[in-house]
Amino acid sequence: MPQQLDVVLTKAGRTKIRYPAEVLADDGARISVLAAWAAPGVRDFGFVRFEPGDEFTEHYWRDRWYAVKEVRDGRGTLKGWYCDITRPAVVRDGATGPAELTVEDLDLDLWVSADGSQVLRLDEDEFAASGLADHDPDAARQARSALDTLERLAKEGALPALLTA
């Protein structure tokens, strides 16, 4: 198992962002990595701010249609969980280049605040506009089902347990 890899988030066949991460664990189904906030500057969503110094413990599955990112500020205080709806992760070992973990972003997201008081479905308009339901209806069904599953787990307070199971 590589100690470091690049996380590559793609969207519509293009690389959206690439950043380095430290591999924390890989059980063959789920790979967990630690990464710093990789985008330039601050991103203020209104309900949470991601900024330099934030750390993301990211969990990706090779057999599930989502990734869950536990977000902490520079002091280690939990901000919450940002959940990306994606195709299952693909990990390339790096035999012919840097090790990579690649996921395709399917536009849907879920935000869960640290205290659980906010469970917000995000970007449903982008998902509808993407045309995924027309050109890959099975993937669109998988994406909606993944979002529904994560929302249910969050409302039940069970999202943290998903990450330690």
UniProtKB/TrEMBL annotation:
InterPro entries: DUF402 (IPR007295), FomD-like_sf (IPR035930), Ntdp-like (IPR050212)
Stored SUPFAM superfamilies: FomD-like
Keyword Hydrolase included in the entry's annotation: yes
Keywords: Hydrolase
A matching Pfam family: DUF402
Keyword Hydrolase: yes
Positions of the DUF402 domain: 47-157
Protein name from the UniProt record: DUF402 domain-containing protein
Gene source species: Streptomyces ramulosus
